[in-house]
Amino acid sequence: MAWWFSSRFGRGPQSLGALFAMNYILIAVSSYVIARLSLLLGVVRAVLLTRGAGLVMLLILPFSPSFGVAFFIYVLRSIFNQGSVGSRQSLSLNLVGQKRHGLAGTVHIVSTQLPMAIGPYVTGALFHSGHTTWPFILAASLQGAYLFLYWTFFLRHDPNGRPAH
Question: Is-contact 49 40, C-beta < 8 A?
């Protein structure tokens, strides 16, 4: 993302570094808000709501007219996507016995880290070939598939959620 902001809007490392740091602080704060939302709606519905909003932000991000608008959308997207990590991990841990918490936590981390490792490689190749919008569309498509699968597999296991009809 730093390369995209730099090449698209001509911003250097100093301004980007400060903004990315602020972004991570806001993600940390949003985790508490999304945890409260999970108590109201249930974990699965809160994750679907926030990650769905993040998906929309991801789709509109490459069409941002200015650096300020783009970074604002990026921060919102980050808050919506990453702010629910604690709630998602909590649900995963609740599905297994106490003795399996380590394994469940590891599976959760691996399942999020692998896409984060592969994404920059694919994105770099697409950016290099001049396709600066396709990585966003591809990522949004994968996130949409994730949301569908999350809904399908976890809704019935949500301890705070309303029963599905």
Answer: no
Q: Is 64 helix (H, G, I), strand (E, B) or coil?
A: coil
The rounded distance, in Å, linking the Cα atoms of 56 and 90 is 25
**Which residues 6+ apart lie within 8 Å of 22 measured at CB?**
75
What pLDDT, on the 0 to 100 scale, is given for residue 142? 92
Model confidence, pTM: 0.86
The span from the CA of 112 to the CA of 115, in Å, is 6
Report phi then psi at 34, rounded to 5. -70, -30
The CA-CA-CA angle for residues 84, 146, 141, to 5°, reads 115
Question: Please, is 70 exposed, middle or buried when counting C-beta atoms within 10 Å of its C-beta (0-12, 13-18, 19+)?
Answer: buried
At residue 117, what is the residue type? Answer: A
Dihedral over Cα of 17, 23, 28, 29: its sign: positive
Give residue 125's identity as a one-letter amino acid code. Answer: A
Q: For the segment 111-124, what is each residue's pLDDT rounded down to a tens digit?
A: 878 888 888 899 99
